[in-house]
Amino acid sequence: MLFAIHMLDRPGGAALRAATGEAHRGYVRRNAHRMLLGGPLLAEDGTTMIGSLIVLECPDRAEAEAFVEAEPYRRAGLFESVLIRRFAAVVALDPAGPGKGKD
User: Fold this and answer.
1) Angle 68-50-33 (CA atoms, 0-180°, nearest 5)?
2) What is the tens place of the pLDDT at every residue in 50-65?
3) Residue 58 in contact with residue 1, Cβ under 8 Å?
């Protein structure tokens, strides 16, 4: 099953995000085999990180919730909100990137 996990940072969370970043990146590396897609959500300026989005493959919602609870940003209290929803992939991600690869 696929789950879309949408996490928004709490106001003023930039310092906490920076301080927890290394632990977060380690967690992502250890779990990358389960992620179809993941990365930061950005503010309108295109650079300020304001949250995270992950499409995760796991057998059930309980495991998706456990994944989020163990996430270092979550454990540090960075997220103001977390939304977990079942997801159906209708369009596959092209590893070459949008608009590249197949014609």
Assistant:
1) 40
2) 999 999 999 999 999 9
3) yes
Whether residue 64 contacts residue 56, with contact meaning beta carbons closer than 8 Å, is answered with yes
* Strand residue runs (E) in 13-64: 35-42, 49-57
pTM for this one?
A: 0.87
pLDDT, tens digit (0-9, with 9 covering 90-100), for 9-33 = 999 999 999 999 999 999 999 999 9
Cβ contact 35:58 at 8 Å: no
Phi, then psi, of 98 in degrees rounded to 5: -60, 130
Tokens of 26: 């380690």
DSSP secondary structure string for all residues of 62-90: HHHHHHHHH-HHHHHT-EEEEEEEEE---
Single-letter amino acid, residue 56? L
User: With 0-12 CB in 10 A as exposed, 13-18 as middle and 19+ as buried, what is 9?
Assistant: buried
> Rounded distance, CA 28 to CA 71, Å?
9
